[in-house]
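In this section we walk through a basic example: taking a raw amino acid sequence and producing a predicted 3D structure, encoded as discrete structure tokens. The instruction is simple. Fold the sequence below.
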Amino acid sequence: MTNAADDWLSDSRAIRRVSLFSDAPIEPSAWPATIPAVAQLIRDGGIEFQPGLTFLVGENGSGKSTLLEGIATAYGLPPEGGSNNGGRSTRPSESPLADWLRIERSPSAPRWGFFLRAETMHGYYSYLESLPSSPDAHLHSMSHGESFNELLDRKLDHPQYVAGLVCLDEPEAALSFGSMLTWIAGLHRMVRRGTQVICATHSPILASIPGATILELGEWGIRQVAWDELELVGHWRSYLDDPRRYLRHLID
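The resulting token sequence is shown next.
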């Protein structure tokens, strides 16, 4: 029979729970506290993350990237992307959310982590290129999608770098349909090796990975849903079934 202490020590989650510091200087009427998802986080006193893969899904402005950025930065990852072994900041633009958040970690999880932020990867590649004898200096010579696939192979899904936490902010921005299938297989392997992944996405393809926890963000705040209950999935199905349903309202 195990006790609570044994369960706590064997818990492999890099992030068990994200809570708020009691003295966090939160102004409820100011951004980012005005985002419904962040407001719910504040109201509930935090959020617990399940093992494995968690998707944050929602419309533009729903707070996916703001929440993910806050969690990644509070965990110790560079706000513009990279690992906790290296990254850089060119123009601080992140919200104060990270300063409000307290990360409850597992002592048994690997400490290495990575934050892939699609909009700032050019700067991260430049940083890698500037390092002496960098094995990643070639990333700038590749297409956007090729470089993301290279990161998956060489860092995220490489057995040598089993991560405690990987945060992905809209990786599908660079990926073709075929590459997304490659990423689905890679993410599945990463989770099986013990990596915890939190991914903000607009992709119904990525979000379809079996066993993932899906949190839908919107004007309601945050709610857990099944894949086929996502508004995103319903819209894509309807559009692909008959684009004219949408186009007749958009194009004269």
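Looking at the output, two observations stand out. The chain has a mean pLDDT of 90. The chain has one domain: 4-250. In the next section we compare this with other chains.
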